[in-house]
Specification:
Low-confidence stretches of chain A: none
Oligomer: homodimer
Radius of gyration of chain A: 23 Å
Number of helices of chain A: 17
Largest interface: A-B, 90 and 90 residues
Number of domains of chain A: 4
Largest sheet of chain A: 7 strands, antiparallel
Shape of chain A: globular
Strand content of chain A: 15-25%
Helix content of chain A: 25-40%
CATH topology of the largest domain in chain A: Uridine Diphospho-n-acetylenolpyruvylglucosamine Reductase, domain 3
Strand order of the largest sheet of chain A: 15-12-14-13-19-20-17
CATH architecture of the largest domain in chain A: 2-Layer Sandwich
Mean pLDDT of chain A: 96
Distance between the termini of chain A: 24 Å
Number of strands of chain A: 21
């Protein structure tokens, strides 16, 4: 391949502002957010519109160069990071960052792929609407990546994953055609649901350039409580109790383990622990409705009183102010940070059927403690939808290198329990290049065969995001 | 092909109880529910389990016989009716009718494809849970068909289409392999979302044999009102008002046109019209929550009072009893029947963006009245999700044959407006063989090309439900 002529042709499509070739400037694009993966690319392309994306893809087909679509690069599984070898470009959607339209009657928003999630959330809010994808990386994650990875988050319980918000998609296919499918319809049974195929496919089947998102009414009353619960069986009973009042008011139902709470209290002493009782399990519960002052707090108190009466909870605090509300949430939000401050740690983003959570936590904890005595098992996460971040922290004052040497054994032990309980080894972060080696044992046989057939039919030259999802 | 040996081999798979070859007995399977389509088949197969389905498919591949999967045969678009020509069998899932499992903690139900929707609803209810797919054909529709057509219904507004309930699927592929994907997970981002490809594909990509459905808490407080509204713009404002209290309590928001109401009153005089005012637009509103006596009626009254104050509604009646509640619903539910009793009629199952409903109804009405003076335009349906059944009834005392001769002109006129407003020509019933000729003009170009690629990759011999979705 004549690289100079390829770069020349690319530049004539996107202009000199739309291409980066200087290795010093491409490095950040070549490296994933966690700095686990470091790849290479001929250039980083930053097209300004869908036609440019299409032209770039056609040129890459012609030159036999593969394409790594990239949004905020925060997948955590190296989903948007190029491989070390091979001829590839990175196609960053970051300059396609226009909010094309917000319709308050349809409750829809048409956005380009490069819009930062938080900016989309704010634009919705300004229009009196709510885009309920709440994830830690929302300040850098881009809509295209959010959809391509079917992102989840704290509010999945109520609103679903990214998939549930997507009414329409605009996609550039592997041969550079443009699928114009930006319909704003809630119901449309006209042939195969093409958008569903691209959502969650991690950029391996097409490049998402724009989307129509379905927005929800903006919550104007929000109430948050932190509950101390004797064990996980009781946590499930608490979930059941809230569901049987008004499930739709239940915005989040988040789990914090005793160890997880201890680590936060240790590293963030300014967050005065607000309960009288320490407990094996804590739950952050958030209720929210659009109407102001419509009895939400009374509903919350009623359910909590019932939970006390039935001895489902040991203690609870209901936030009295916006400040206290944000404070209570920080016990959950600082889980990752406090673990990082405690030394080397290992993340497991897994899910099991909700009913199996107590058994999962118990068995996985025992397995890890057997492998590495002194290990700090600090699970937390989205109990309401079965998605647990089963995180492991090195022993206090232990050796972090020695701990990390056991990371594969520990992850395998956790996954063995998940597998046995018919769970998933990647609940919300996807596969990328971190977990593709696990696909044959978890999703092998007919499943992987069907996925390969679809990949082959939509991207026969394997030009889009090679080395992701499928085992190498 | 040696038919006798084929029949012999089929019988050895399913037993003599599992095959019907007598033309007198196969006729009902060969004819669609509306009796518009009449096809032929070599035999009707009624396997008892997934392995038998797999073996039948493999045998058909061997004999080069195509397969028409059939559930309740109530798609309304001939989606499960065989063609007239060719060698095909009907594969009825009706004997695979076991509810395998209900889990009240996970809120899931594992059901075989042949379970009648109403039976699944009842089983969920007995377990204190709710399966919220409510459609007119629920007494005969089977779960497999409900999923294969991504059925909608009255409650889509709140709970989504069938797609939103499916956590896992078991599918027999076009080469007779079994995809075991009956996971009960809310979150599982591990490669392509295969289930999404089969949902809504009308049996053209695989045969759904079982599913895991996500159930909701059972509503224990339900309140229904019938509202008289000056026009459709005000109906949208009413929808907005309910959404801005607690959207999740809003279970249904159904539109009845003035003409539609008049026809019901004429044919069902026993349903005493409960309002003081006749109006251009009526809305049936249903609110529901799981908790008993938790202020739902007060909420409803608050919103209705506000609607009066703001002159959004002219009149309203809130049902005082279960009997009155069912009675109010009948004004909506008898729309189809009263139209049938009024003579020849034409159905249009279309959707547009919610904000475009007023313009759609006005323009489509004018177009139809221009084509056929005296026509009775009687739209109704799921205003809350943009899905209008734009039904047309012959003039009173008119000639039904003459009216039906204009049916294509009338449907084309309605569809032209829908197309212009970026709507869908099939909102919830699918394509089948009634509307496949429309696919190139509505979903042509890249969309149809991608659908064909997927069909080709998953069913290269075109053995599953040929002649559906794709134009012949």
């Amino acid at each position: 391949m004549d690289i100079n002529s390829f770069i020349h042709d690319l530049t004539s499509i996107v202009g000199s502002q739309g291409i980066i070739t200087n290795p010093k400037d491409t490095e950040i694009y070549n490296t994933d957010w966690r700095q686990i993966f470091q790849g290479n690319s001929i250039a980083v392309l930053r097209p300004q519109n869908t036609q440019e994306v299409s032209d770039v893809v056609k040129l890459c087909v012609q030159y036999d160069v593969t394409i790594i679509p990239q949004g905020g690069n925060t997948s955590l599984v190296g989903g948007a990071t190029p491989p070390k070898q091979g001829n590839q470009i990175i196609l960053s959607l970051s300059r396609m960052n226009k909010i094309r339209n917000i319709d308050t009657i349809d409750s829809t928003m048409t956005v380009e792929a490069g819009v930062i999630l938080e900016e989309a959330q704010n634009a919705a809010k300004n229009a009196g609407l709510y885009l309920p994808i709440v994830i830690a990386s929302q300040g850098s994650a881009q809509i295209g990546g959010v959809i391509a990875t079917n992102a989840g988050g704290n509010n999945t319980l109520r609103y679903g994953n990214a998939r549930e918000f997507v009414l329409g998609l605009e996609v550039v296919t592997a041969d550079g055609q443009i699928l114009h499918n930006l319909r704003r319809l809630r119901k449309d049974n006209t042939g195969y649901a093409l958008k569903q195929i691209f959502i969650g496919s991690e950029g391996t089947l097409g490049i998402i350039t724009a989307a129509v998102l379905h927005l929800h009414p903006l919550p104007r009353s929000t109430e948050v409580a932190l509950c101390a619960v004797p064990d996980l069986q009781h946590a499930l009973r608490l979930l059941h109790l809230f569901n049987n009042y008004n499930p739709a008011a239940l915005q989040a139902f988040e789990y914090i383990s005793q160890k997880g709470m201890d680590l936060v209290c240790q590293h963030f002493p300014e967050l005065n622990f607000p309960l009288e009782t320490k407990a094996p399990v804590y739950i952050v519960v958030e209720l929210a409705i659009p109407a102001q002052g419509d009895g939400l707090r009374e509903l919350f108190e009623t359910v909590l009183e019932k939970a006390f009466e039935e001895e489902i909870i040991l203690d609870a605090v209901l936030a009295e102010s916006e400040t206290q509300r944000l404070n209570l949430w920080r016990f959950r939000e600082e889980q990752s940070e406090s673990q990082k401050l405690s030394g080397a740690n290992i993340k497991n983003d897994v899910s099991v059927p909700i009913s199996s959570i107590p058994e999962f936590i118990e068995r996985a904890t025992q397995a890890c403690e057997a492998i590495y005595p002194g290990i700090q098992v600090a699970p937390f996460g989205h109990l309401g939808d079965g998605n647990i971040h089963f995180n492991l922290v090195q022993p206090a004052n232990g050796d972090s290198k020695d701990f990390m040497n056991k990371s594969h054994d520990l992850m395998d032990a956790v996954c063995a329990v998940v597998y046995d309980l018919e769970g998933s080894f990647s609940a919300e972060h996807g596969i990328g290049q971190l977990k593709n080696y696990m696909m044959p044992s978890w999703r092998g046989g007919v499943e992987l065969e069907l996925m390969e057939k679809i990949k082959q039919s939509l991207d026969p030259k394997n030009i889009l995001n090679p080395g992701k999802i499928f085992p190498n």
